[in-house]
Write a structure and sequence with these properties.
heterodimer; A: 506 residues; alpha/beta; Rossmann fold; 6-stranded mixed β-sheet; 22 strands; globular; B: 308 residues; mainly alpha; ABC transporter involved in vitamin B12 uptake, BtuC; 12 helices; 70% helix; 0% strand
């Protein structure tokens, strides 16, 4: 391999934060015109490394080379000048501005007065070239997330980047959009630009990259040519032990009484757009109903309606023949794992013990004559920490210091310990690493085996198929189709997710 | 008789709204960039005293306004250092500035004993005397001190800068998403300093105009009489848009002028109630309008560059 063909090299990068060594002598190389995959679980240090490259953090040690020259990057504007473009996992777009305004924001120019004419022409040319079409005049918040991703990519290309870093780009894309992204990435690399593709989704990494560097606990585990890699090799490198997401054997549950019954439910989202349309669903005891679909097709409103957090505009929702009218805050009746554990599921500044208590704080023995009984609360917390294997030294530490997987365990412990008749789990594995994911799967499967009705909402097809007894596909607030969990295949579900019924295909 | 009162009222409405408009235009930029400059009331008060004092000693209104601008720059730097660099709470910092300003102006004014008996010359009109005699528009528009015209002109300039220039785009971006602005290669801190200094200069000059355009006299303690707070309300009522804010300022200016006129008529309503009028209108306007406006997303929140 020729030294000159290395476009980007980060050598021996170390970075520590108080209490964590986020990057430990990390070296990565990316050749001209290649796609480098950066694979690792959440918290492995991928994003820290890329933030160093983009000048958001300064490394404690290590060097960065672009095009063979050593560079020091102190700020994003310097990174941009060195030809580095980045699409962050959480988009860095100003929602209230138009696409073109976002694209030209921060580009140095001598002109004080805005002139969109030439910028629009250049942007439209880029849209055509990479087949990533967006309307330059559209206000960003009106765009679907997939399109926002295009804006981010176009923004980097507009600045003529040599290296484009994509941080978990497919998390928000539909399967067809992912394909579109793959095509665009190929076109980008054909021109001699390089792409760093960060992901923890193995299938995509194998599909699109030329080489893969695997990072675990801030260290590089190894770099392999993608051609020689398989999913299981990479997964093992990533987690440090063999892992699989496969359908587990499950006992047949005989009792099949209907627990959750939704009839002709209509509901609106926060923006006043109809999110559920004449929605009918029944979930029985002892079954897991998986809800597949691209995010934003009514999943959030569905879970919120069931939990009583959102009032449907019409229709009825009953749980064990009880009408849902108000917020259900009784975890022995409904266990609710909300989609955003950090905002809705937990109070991050409260301790683990307090978070575990949030729904029981009025109950004996935790309160006596209006005073909280901290010894009891503590005892309860210690018990839960042990029972649910929460990695927390005690109940007294703030929940925000725990990792995502352990935060989720706190939510699960609170919601499911009282053995509810219905579990609503909304994206319970989102952002968790593989180990934590399989832990959540096991818990939900046990809930089903215990006889609870489980509604499992997820955007990850693989896990919906692995876990569900029955799968419904949600598309713009309606059920596009229903499949049996044993026989469902990804392709059919993928089609339905795009709003195509199997009949329409014929 | 009533016709003359109405003319006089209209004339005064515009005159009273000029300082409000100038102050509000600066505040719009600060708030668009995410910072509430609550200190404008106090800065305006300082500017009011600075205006009369310098005008009296230097015998030049241009020098007086220039001095107000410099004063605003210094005070703006202080506010920016506290709220942006030190990330102090913007409301508390603003209140502190306001309290300090009341104390400081009282002390300084009590030292400047000569000024209690002399008035500074007030601004002249922009248009020649002959035009003042044109019916209706003459007294209402052409007899205005030139600062009124400048205020309206500034509102148009502010609108242009906010929507049609690079810097305006940067300001709009930074208040809604500072992280995005930073990753686009701009300095969030620098932008916030710029808007805060601009808003403080505007407030200080507005204070100077407040005295020099009308009475030429500084009244210790309550010269600005909460006009800075009314500006804060006007910016919200105007939805952070220069043109709409200008009209909001004119509405408040008009009630202020009406209140002063009603006090001198022999009305059965006690003057104390009349004095409440501008503030009552402010509260009413806020409750009606606030729902419809779109708040800058990081309005009033400190920006921590280390957390991205």
């Amino acid at each position: 391999m020729n030294e000159n063909s290395i476009l980007l090299k980060m050598q021996d990068i170390s970075k520590s934060f108080p209490g964590v060594l986020a990057n430990d002598h990390v070296t990565i190389e990316c050749e001209k015109g290649h796609v480098l995959g950066l694979l690792g679980e959440n918290g492995a240090g991928k994003t820290t490394l890329m933030n160093i490259l983009y000048g958001l953090y300064q490394p404690d040690q290590g060097k960065i080379f672009v095009d063979g020259k050593q560079v020091v990057i102190n700020s994003p504007s310097e990174a941009i000048n060195h030809g580095i473009g980045m699409v962050h996992q959480h988009f860095k777009l100003v929602d209230t501005l138009s696409v073109i305004e976002n694209v030209i924001l921060g580009i140095p120019t001598n002109k004080a007065v805005l002139d969109f004419g030439p910028a629009k022409k250049k942007l439209e040319k880029l849209c055509k070239e990479y087949e990533l079409f967006v309307d330059p005049e559209e206000i960003v918040w009106r765009l679907p997330v997939g399109k926002q991703q295009w804006v981010e990519i176009l923004k980097a290309l507009y600045r003529d980047c040599k290296v484009l870093v994509l941080d978990e780009p497919t998390a928000v894309l539909t399967p067809s959009e992912s394909d579109q992204l793959c095509r665009a990435i190929r076109k980008i690399t054909e021109q001699g630009r390089s792409v760093v593709f960060i992901s923890h989704k193995l299938r995509e990494v194998i599909e699109i990259t030329d080489k893969v560097t695997v990072i675990r606990d801030g260290k590089v585990i190894g770099t392999v040519n993608t051609k020689e890699a398989t999913q299981s090799i990479l997964a093992e490198m990533m987690v440090g032990r063999p892992v699989t997401i496969e359908r587990k054997a499950r006992p047949i549950i005989k009792e099949h009484s209907a627990v959750l019954v939704m009839k002709n439910v209509n509901a609106f989202d926060d923006r006043g757009v109809q999110a559920l349309k004449d929605f009918n669903l029944t979930v029985h005891a002892g079954e897991i109903v998986g809800v597949a679909g691209v995010d934003g097709n009514g999943q959030r409103e569905l879970s919120e309606c069931i939990a009583g957090l959102r009032k449907p505009s019409s229709g009825s929702i009953t749980i064990q023949d009880k009408q849902v009218t108000n917020v259900i805050a009784d975890p022995s009746f409904v266990g609710f794992i909300p989609e955003d554990r950090q905002k809705t599921g937990l109070v991050l500044d409260f301790t683990v013990a307090e978070n575990l208590l949030i729904k029981d704080y009025k109950e004996k023995p935790y309160v006596k004559n209006g005073f909280l009984q901290y010894s009891e609360i503590k005892k309860h917390a210690e018990h839960m920490i042990k029972k649910y294997n929460i990695k927390s030294p005690s109940g007294d530490i703030k929940v925000k210091t725990l990792s995502g997987g352990n935060q989720q365990k706190v939510v699960i412990a609170r919601e499911l310990d009282a053995q509810p008749v219905l579990d609503v789990a909304s994206h319970p594995t989102r952002g968790l690493d593989l180990g934590a994911v399989s832990n959540v799967h096991d818990i939900l499967l046990n809930e089903r085996n215990r006889g609870a009705a489980v509604l499992f909402i997820s955007a990850e097809l693989q896990e919906v198929i692995a876990l569900s007894d029955r799968i419904i596909v949600l598309y713009s607030g309606q059920i596009m189709g229903e499949l049996d969990g044993e026989t469902a295949d990804q392709f059919t579900i993928g089609q339905m997710m795009l709003g195509q019924t199997t009949e329409a295909k014929k | 008789m009533t016709y003359e009162i109405i003319l006089d009222w209209l004339q005064a409405s515009l005159r009273w709204s000029a300082p409000l408009i100038i102050c509000a235009m600066g505040e719009i930029f600060a708030e668009r960039s995410g910072i509430i400059n609550m200190g404008i009331e106090g800065i305006m008060l300082c500017g009011a005293l600075c205006g009369v004092a310098v005008s009296y000693y230097a015998q030049s209104q241009a020098v007086a306004l220039f001095a107000c601008a410099i004063l605003g720059l210094v005070l703006g730097l202080i506010v920016a250092f506290l709220t942006v660099s030190r990330r102090t709470n913007q409301v508390v910092t603003g209140l502190m500035i306001n309290l300090l300003a009341i104390g400081a102006t009282n002390v300084i004014f009590s030292v400047l004993t000569v000024m209690r008996h002399k008035r500074a010359t007030t601004f002249g009109a922009l248009f020649p005397e002959s035009m003042h005699r044109i019916p209706l528009v003459g007294p209402v528009l052409f007899a205005q001190p030139f600062t009124t015209w400048i205020a309206i002109f500034i509102a148009f300039i502010a609108s242009f800068v906010l929507y049609k220039t690079r810097w305006g785009l940067n300001v709009r971006a930074v208040g809604d998403n500072p992280q995005a602005t930073a990753t686009a290669g701009l300095s969030v801190i620098k932008l916030k300093y710029q808007t805060l200094i601009l808003s403080s200069i505007a407030a200080s000059v507005a204070g100077g105009i407040l005295t020099l355009a009308s009475s030429g006299y500084f009244a210790a303690g309550g010269m600005t009489g909460g006009r800075g707070f009314i500006v804060l309300a006007a910016v919200v009522v105007g939805g952070w848009d220069p043109m709409r804010t200008m009209f909001a300022c004119m509405l408040f200016g008009a009630t202020d002028a009406a209140q002063l006129r009603l006090q001198t008529t022999e009305s059965i309503i006690p003057t104390q109630f009349l004095q409440m009028l501008p503030y009552v209108i402010t509260v009413v306007a806020l409750t009606i309008m606030v729902k419809r406006s779109r708040v800058p997303k990081t309005w009033g929140a400190a920006y921590d560059g280390r957390r991205s």
